[in-house]
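Lab notebook: predicted structure, single chain.

Context: the supervisor wants predicted structures on file for every construct in the current expression panel, including those that have not yet been purified. This is the next one on the list. No modifications to the sequence; it matches the entry in the shared construct table.
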Amino acid sequence: MKHTHRTERRLRAAAGALAATGLVLALGACSAESVDEAVGKAVDKTVDETYEVTGKSVDEITFHGGGGDAMNPKLETVSSPTLPWKKTVTLRGIMPPAVMPMAVEADGTDVACTITYKGEVIKEAKGEGVLTAGGCVAVSPVVG
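Prediction complete. Output recorded below exactly as produced.
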């Protein structure tokens, strides 16, 4: 009889462990599927961003215009822009919005850039910081 009770206990323990393992694996698969689904939605989502550059003596403006992908965005360039300059672009997925004014003149203190999303400024830089920091680069609103 003692042998039968031990066997039943072992079987119950094994069945319980198996059930727990199955539950953990099922939840893990569900979570991984949810993460994959969320990433897929983020990659496919598009957002409109507005870039603005103000000031004087800007020779060129380079920006992420929506081409390419998040890891290798295609850069677009406007030479000798009329300031103030403003452009709305549609970015896909987690591509970071970025606008980089370039000034050849050493005195770039009168340059500013902003990135706006849904009417709110999400990044701005002014004066020398614009040129030394490479302009305005923000985290994609899809990520946040």
